[in-house]
Amino acid sequence: xxxxxxxxxxxxxxxxxxxxxxxxxxxxxxxxxxxxxxxxxxxxxxxxxxxxxxxxxxxxxxxxxxxxxxxxxxxxxxxxxxxxxxxxxxxxxxxxxxxxxxxxxxxxxxxxxxxxxxxxxxxxxxxxxxxxxxxxxxxxxxxxxxxxxxxxxxxxxxxxxxxxxxxxxxxxxxxxxxxxxxxxxxxxxxxxxxxxxxxxxxxxxxxxxxxxxxxxxxxxxxxxxxxxxxxxxxxxxxxxxxxx
Length: 244
Prior knowledge:
Blueprint: E1 10-15, H1 30-44, E2 49-54, H2 62-67, H3 72-96, E3 101-105, E4 114-115, H4 118-126, E5 130-134, H5 144-155, E6 159-164, E7 169-170, E8 182-183, E9 185-187, H6 188-194, H7 201-209, E10 214-218, H8 224-229, E11 236-239
Parallel strand pairs: 1-2, 1-6, 2-5, 3-4, 3-5, 6-10, 9-11
Antiparallel strand pairs: 7-8, 10-11
């Protein structure tokens, strides 16, 4: 049986912490974790190399805590540690799904996970392991979206996939405005000019400057990730130039 033609060979998947909490909205929902890891296992079976950046908002949001009086840097460090918990949970979920995975943290926690080393991450990917990047960039004042943009550039990902609760990029909030228009494609400059809530401006600029393709899509519908890998136009494609 011939292998299917793949749209992408190496991807960086950006998962929010909330994507792991399911209906409960806090912590990690085991059924949701198993479903997400199953989706990743499906595309790994095609030979796709997968790296993941995961957020920590299901446990702690540094920016929100800062607004309530926490010192910003300390709040961000707490948020980074929350991402490590999610990364370890993802690693275990992937192992249960039959996929070998490694966690690399930008904040050294050597008894628990590997430190982030770019060349080591590339070796893991070449060997077929999923690499889960935790603790953001290791620095406060940077979001996990920015970390995802950075890691995607560092590993030479064919595409950065941002998994959200909505099915793409809209001209306004579709949860508020029923007439909101979803873009099939849009440029990074247009995202910045229209101030669309895709990722923070630093993350968008980093993708643009490194010519990294970004696809914004929902993982709530089973099989979306697999369909995207096989070339279907799922969600919204954000790139340096929109095709005519």
